[in-house]
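Input chain follows. Return structure tokens only.
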Amino acid sequence: MKWTGIGWRRCIPTSTEYVLPAAKSKKLRINPNREVRMPELPEVETIVRGLREAITGATVEKLQVIDPRISLPEKEIIGKRIAAIERRGKYIVFKLAPSGALIFHLRMSGRLLRVCAEGEGRYSRLVLHLDSGVLRFVNPRRLGTVEYSANGFPHELGVEPLSDAFTVHQLRRLLAGSRRPVKPFLMDQRKIAGLGNIYASEALWRAEIDPRRAANTITAKEARALHRGIVSVLQEAIEHMGTTFSDYRDSDGNKGGFQDFLAVYGKEGRKCSRCGTEIIRINQGGRSTYLCPGCQK
């Protein structure tokens, strides 16, 4: 079935010399609706599932590179088929046949869109023309990346938290080897791939663990609760197509819905649904962490 390509012609700049308009200066506030955040595992997994269904098997006919900072070996990509689309941590991997891979990282505001909204196309940095339609790499802040790899996935990442390899025993082993505060530890992509600010905060709330505690102080009982919290919050967020506060959209431009089910993230000043204590926000490594001081110990 061919894509209809609704509205795509107005979304693609006509010149590779397109210049991004100067962004208006905005004062950042500590507000979950404005706080700059990176798509995490559930958001990336949602995008991957949508793209997998839509473009697996498609052949790359043309690359339209709009951002001069993007450097791709076109001869190694054009004419190849997208054999599979996978997620690795927060990366999106297009496996090409007979060889090679395109690897995207969305960073803060990147999107991979099959259909883009009015005016959004001016932020397109790369357009993949496929035999079944087009796919745009929309990247307003130019923080997202795309690279070609001839020899598999080149980045060193930790265990996938939704894989069979992520067991309670594995989590306990990882925690025992670190004195770092447990929340920044969980966000370390070399330890656990895909966890970020939102879901680390939510998992720790579910496990009733204070995010400021050293990782190696987590008991066996707490590790079991944390393992359940990580797996359950990620699975539920995927079911709701991820969390959208501002930038995140799936490959069809739709928002996620899990923001309506968050227990602690962005809830500063509200009462904890479990114990009634007022939720607070602290700073850990330059990132906002939300917790309930009443029931997270």
